[in-house]
Amino acid sequence: MKYHPIDSKLFIKNREKFCSQMKPNSLAVFNSNDIYPISADSTMPFAQHRDIFYLSGVDQEESILLLFPDAPYEEQREMLFLKETNDHIAVWEGEKLTKDRAFEVSGIKKVYWLHEFEKVLFELMTYAETIYINTNEHYRATVETETREARFVKWWKEKYPAHAVAKSNPILQRLRSVKEQQEIDLMQKACDITEKGFRRLLSFVKPGVYEYEIEAELIHEFIRNRSKGFAYTPIIASGNNANVLHYIENNQQCKSGDLILLDVAAEYANYSSDLSRTIPVSGRYTKRQADVYNAVLRVKNEASKMLIPGTLWKEYHLEVGKLMTSELLSLGLLDKADIQNEDKDWPAYKKYFMHGTSHHIGLDTHDYGLLREPMQANMVFTVEPGIYIPEEGFGIRIEDNLVIQPQGEPFNLMRNIPIEIDEIETLMNS
User: CA 62, CA 31: separation in Å to the nearest integer?
Assistant: First the structure.
């Protein structure tokens, strides 16, 4: 792994929190992700399942975590099952976790090799009454590929049909949405790496560069600072490309006078950052571009102040809609008739700002969190309003990552990343 070792106390605490929410006499199983094939002998890069990482720190394929807090013997209460390493694997694939190293990473004393899993599980199932399965219930989830977790669920249903079933996901949705300080520190590191990449761009961008050249500058800076790379597929959208919300081709030339909407950020230790900035190709905003930019910035700043404990996500977005409506009226993009005649299910401002303002962020870019429940201290949210004007050939989005505080305004993890027009222009022309 490129990232520095993480103190196992984080994972020990995470397991304690999860186990405290389990039903009596129950066990829970968490599987790593597969390595997915492309074709022939090619595979996609491995990305660990965030739940097993959150609970153990294990960042390796073919791994299983088993938790059984009411097991009759202490050594059965938390166990890791890992792919057995050997000299051949070390030569061809590199270092894998040994049992001693797995303990250092996770704080779990009892580590087995993977081939022992079915035998150990059989014994434990004779004691347990309930098993927690780990299904993906995120509100944005669309899963078509059968995962390692899904295969496991099918197998144990056939093997142990008499056991009661419970779900891990509702517990994890609540736990993972509220960050420990160690997690916030890792997210700060991801944001700091993102800052380095963004500052690198400001002296690089000029008329004639291609979007993919900007992408290359970013990945260079991210990897040299111990990130695996982008936290999500980068959006580098010049000119009218910015009006395609998930534009990822990044293959067009940046032209004089245009803006570039950048939605690009680094990961660090599997934790995400999520940045949006919109910069001028020529190093200066036109008056119209600056007016729209500052309107978006005002909405972002006012929306940020609403991220406090007790805020409800749905009501928050209604209030942000009012802020955006006011700005669009001032810009002449809406008039009073548009407001009077709007569809309440699709307000007038949605013509120019059609996506949500905030989402949880953490181990996933769109992280776990139950949107129906009030916001809490140490939740981390994006704030990302935008105005998209295809008829004028540009779109603007500005986004920061904020930690809700017990009192007062949220803490901005991206506070050092240039955002004001004057600072961006100065850096681009220095």
Answer: 8
pLDDT per position in the chain (430 positions), as tens? 899 999 999 999 999 999 999 999 999 999 999 999 999 989 999 999 999 999 999 999 999 999 999 999 999 999 999 998 777 776 677 778 999 999 999 999 999 999 999 999 999 999 999 999 999 989 888 888 999 999 999 999 999 999 999 999 999 999 999 999 999 999 999 999 999 999 999 999 999 999 999 999 999 999 999 999 999 999 999 999 999 999 999 999 999 999 999 999 999 999 999 999 999 999 999 999 999 999 999 999 999 999 999 999 999 999 999 999 999 999 999 999 999 999 988 999 999 999 999 999 999 999 999 999 999 999 999 999 999 999 999 999 999 999 999 999 999 999 999 999 999 999 999 9
Within its chain, how far is the Cα of 160 from the centroid? 35
pTM score over 0.85 = yes
**Dihedral over alpha carbons 190, 196, 200, 202 (to 10 degrees):** 90
Distance of alpha carbon 1 from alpha carbon 227, whole angstroms? 9
Structure-block tokens of residue 261: 């909407």
CA dihedral of 240, 248, 386, 177, whole degrees rounded to 10: 180
The whole-angstrom separation of Cα 414 and Cα 187 is 10
DSSP conformation letters of 376-430:
-TT-EEEE--EEEEGGGTEEEE-BEEEEPPSSSSPEETTTTS--SHHHHHHHHT-
Structural contact between residues 67 and 106, judged by C-beta atoms closer than 8 angstroms: no
Q: Are 210 and 38 in contact (CB under 8 A)?
A: no
Under 8 Å between Cβ of 82 and 102: yes
